[in-house]
Design goal:
This protein has about 300 residues and is an alpha/beta fold. The chain folds into two domains: about 5-85 and about 285-295, P-loop containing nucleotide triphosphate hydrolases (Rossmann fold); about 90-240, Rossmann fold, CATH 3.40.50. It is about 30% helix and about 20% strand. The protein has helices spanning about 5-10, 30-35, 40-45, 65-70, 105-115, 125-140, 150-165, 175, 195-205, 225-235; strands at about 25, 55-60, 75-80, 90-95, 120, 145, 170, 185-190, 215-220, 240, 290-295. The strands form two sheets. It has a seven-stranded parallel β-sheet with strand order 6-7-5-8-9-4-10. Strand 6 (about 145), helix 7 and strand 7 form a beta-alpha-beta unit. The longest helix has 13 residues, at about 125-140. The chain is globular. About 30% of the residues are buried.
């Protein structure tokens, strides 16, 4: 079990031998294929025996990613364990419409009045996750943040303390939360809605697993109404609106606070073109799907049923 880049490192160091691989598995296949890993994936596949079975698992699988996956498989069999872009029926989904500037106080209010415990809170950015975790901790709500800028040790420690109940809240970004698997997680709170509707399905899929009940609460301000509309269109249902006294949404949005002026631009090092930026890969998402196929024109082996509630 490895990430593509680390696996290739081991291959170069000759600390791993892939010649005997019979089954090749891509978990979180949509992320693996659309976030810049495709070149590494192809390099790994080139090192594998031609006669093998491929398995791909994902909670979402867009047509674009499905087409890309078809280039890696021959005559794949697709198995949907739930309708596309839907959450488990055991998850109660609610929306609290409020103002942007009231969200933090509203979140604290929910913890205090409902005695919430073991809550996975989603923020949109790493900086936002850190700031929110500090604010909750300062209010007496034991919290920690988990995201890609944290060290592996810090992430492991935060997740362990969250599972053990030492932390009341774990504030996470979308990518960091992909690997979180907690039995009977009772609550997910979207402090900010994701920019991509399919990520909403991934987020609330952390709760309500294996037939357990869960609750997903989204705090929505004026600016996020387009995202909420996209989410409801994706999941083909209107989410229940809840009003919390004292935190009602105003008729119009307050203007955003002014941003501090940027400092002077740092001089570019010699030899580096002005304005050069690192390329970014677009992120796409999609439905609970597993596909299996063979690398060559071989007979497709039946795939064992996998229970999945993501």
């Amino acid at each position: 079990m490895a990430t593509p880049g680390r696996l290739l490192d081991h291959v170069q160091q000759r600390t791993v031998d892939l010649s005997g691989i019979e089954i090749f598995v891509l978990d979180e296949a949509d992320r693996m294929l659309d976030m810049g890993f495709i070149r590494d994936i192809r390099k790994v596949i080139a090192l594998l025996p031609k006669q093998r079975q491929n398995l791909m698992f994902s909670a979402t699988f867009s047509p674009e990613i499905r087409e890309l996956a078809a280039g890696l498989l021959h005559h794949p069999v697709s198995v949907d364990v739930a309708p596309r872009n839907t959450a488990a029926e055991t998850v109660t989904q609610r929306v609290i419409e409020t103002n942007r500037e009231q969200k933090k106080d509203l979140l604290k209010h929910l913890f205090e009045t409902r005695a919430l415990h073991q809550v996975l809170v989603f923020a949109r950015t790493k900086h936002g996750a850190d700031a929110l975790a500090r604010a909750l901790d300062k209010a007496g709500i034991k919290s920690a943040a988990i995201h890609g800028d944290k060290s592996q040790g810090a992430r492991t420690r935060a997740l362990s303390e969250f599972k053990d109940g030492k932390l009341v809240a774990l504030v996470a970004t979308d990518i960091a939360a992909r690997g979180i698997d907690i039995d009977a997680l009772p609550y997910v709170i979207n402090y900010e809605l994701p920019n991509v509707a399919e990520d909403y399905v991934h987020r609330i899929g952390r709760t309500g697993r294996a037939g357990m009940e869960g609750e997903a609460i989204s705090l929505v301000c004026h600016d996020e109404r387009p995202q909420l509309k996209d989410i409801e269109k994706l999941i083909k249902r209107s989410l229940e609106r809840v009003v919390v006294p004292g935190f009602e949404q105003s008729a119009t949005a307050a203007p955003r606070p002014p941003q501090p002026p940027r400092g002077p631009r740092k001089p570019q090092p010699q030899g580096k073109p002005q304005g050069q930026k690192l390329g970014q890969n677009p992120v796409d998402r999609s439905s609970i799907t597993a596909a299996t196929g063979t690398a060559e024109s071989l007979r497709v082996e039946p795939m064992a049923h996998r229970s999945c509630s993501r």
